[in-house]
């Protein structure tokens, strides 16, 4: 067999150098393209059940930031993931020290698609995911006026202190249907004044309507508020002293009222009333600006509502109506357009320009 002989060394030195340079450029380009395509295929791999999100920009600390962490806890659920992504973006975007924010996510089961979505949408996010054991509330949940309120994950906030690391002594719990429009560190620095938790109180709300007539007519049950001035507060935005919660065994105290509810129907609204029974009248009330709640309307029809007067630091679409669903249906409420700029859903026409 004959072999062709190549006389590469007979080429002029200048031409040989040029060929080498071109070859290097071509190989580098191929390698870069391959890496980019690999990254793109990973970050944009479509899920069969979940929406695909755009990658959020990286947010960095200001010059005066320290390394003091701000702990935030939220739940992860496929039905509310779009809301969670918008909430996280709003927190980071308005934080002066975004790299200090550490997220603690709670989910009821491992979901690779959800995990991938978080990692690819927020590549630099500091977070940890914890599995909430739904068996903790098995047989303890009573049917409420809205199916979403009956989900076990809705009760995960009761067990936060059991799941978070022991070195976490304070945490901000947030629902997934919120948007932060202020620096979260301001909320983090709230002085709890020895209380277990802090939240905006609404003392003008009709507190009696959160419980049934059977509750108020039972002298033993209704006397639980004796010596307190109970006011309604929303559990979707809370600053919690985790250490005091553990020491006071408050998870058990909330569970006790859930057990009473199973025996005698004393309320209708999921996980909120047992919190009120344990804490109402004994929390640190903070400015209403930290929970402009009720933007999702009522729990039955989700009718549109306008903003309450006064300054706003946090918008909360509590209630049946969720902004992403109303925007997609092309029947949004006016307040939903305040949520739209934080929507990272790739197919959304309401998001910020890339």
UniProtKB/TrEMBL annotation:
<dbReference type="GO" id="GO:0005794">
    <property type="term" value="C:Golgi apparatus"/>
</dbReference>
<keyword id="KW-1133">Transmembrane helix</keyword>
<dbReference type="InterPro" id="IPR029044">
    <property type="entry name" value="Nucleotide-diphossugar_trans"/>
</dbReference>
<keyword id="KW-0808">Transferase</keyword>
<keyword id="KW-0735">Signal-anchor</keyword>
<comment type="similarity">
    <text>Belongs to the glycosyltransferase 8 family.</text>
</comment>
<keyword id="KW-0812">Transmembrane</keyword>
<dbReference type="InterPro" id="IPR050748">
    <property type="entry name" value="Glycosyltrans_8_dom-fam"/>
</dbReference>
<dbReference type="GO" id="GO:0016757">
    <property type="term" value="F:glycosyltransferase activity"/>
</dbReference>
<protein>
    <recommendedName>
        <fullName>Hexosyltransferase</fullName>
        <ecNumber>2.4.1.-</ecNumber>
    </recommendedName>
</protein>
<keyword id="KW-0472">Membrane</keyword>
<keyword id="KW-0325">Glycoprotein</keyword>
<dbReference type="Pfam" id="PF01501">
    <property type="entry name" value="Glyco_transf_8"/>
</dbReference>
<comment type="pathway">
    <text>Glycan metabolism; pectin biosynthesis.</text>
</comment>
<dbReference type="InterPro" id="IPR002495">
    <property type="entry name" value="Glyco_trans_8"/>
</dbReference>
<keyword id="KW-0328">Glycosyltransferase</keyword>
């Amino acid at each position: 067999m004959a072999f062709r002989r190549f006389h590469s060394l007979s080429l002029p030195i200048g031409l040989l150098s040029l060929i080498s340079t071109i070859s290097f450029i071509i190989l580098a380009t191929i390698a870069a393209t391959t890496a980019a395509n690999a990254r793109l295929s990973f970050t944009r791999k479509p899920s069969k059940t979940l929406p695909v999100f755009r990658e959020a920009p990286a947010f960095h600390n200001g010059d005066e930031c320290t390394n003091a962490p701000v702990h935030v806890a939220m739940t992860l659920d496929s039905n509310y993931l779009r809301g969670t992504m918008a909430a996280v973006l709003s927190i980071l975007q308005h934080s002066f020290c975004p790299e200090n924010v550490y997220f603690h996510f709670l989910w009821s089961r491992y979901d690779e698609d959800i995990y991938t979505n978080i990692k690819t949408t927020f590549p630099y996010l500091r977070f940890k995911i914890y599995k909430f054991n739904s068996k903790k509330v098995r047989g303890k949940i009573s049917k409420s006026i809205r199916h979403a309120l009956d989900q076990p994950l809705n009760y995960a906030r009761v067990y936060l202190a059991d799941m978070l690391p022991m070195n976490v002594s304070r945490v901000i719990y947030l629902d997934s249907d919120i948007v932060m429009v202020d620096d979260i560190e301001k909320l983090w620095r709230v002085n709890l004044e020895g209380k277990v938790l802090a939240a905006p109180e609404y003392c003008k709300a009709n507190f009696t309507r959160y419980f049934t007539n059977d509750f108020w007519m039972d002298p033993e049950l209704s006397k639980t508020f004796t010596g307190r001035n109970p006011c309604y507060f929303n559990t979707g935005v809370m600053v919690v002293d985790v250490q005091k919660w553990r020491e006071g065994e408050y998870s058990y105290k909330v569970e006790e009222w859930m057990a009473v509810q199973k025996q005698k129907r004393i309320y209708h609204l999921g996980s909120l009333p047992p919190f009120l029974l344990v804490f109402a009248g004994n929390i640190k009330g903070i400015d209403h600006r930290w929970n402009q709640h009720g933007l999702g309307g009522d729990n039955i029809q989700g009718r549109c509502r306008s903003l309450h007067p006064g300054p706003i630091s946090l918008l909360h679409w509590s209630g049946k109506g969720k902004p992403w669903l109303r925007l997609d249906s092309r029947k949004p409420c006016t307040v939903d357009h305040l949520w739209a700029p934080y929507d990272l859903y790739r197919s959304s026409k309401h998001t910020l320009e890339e």
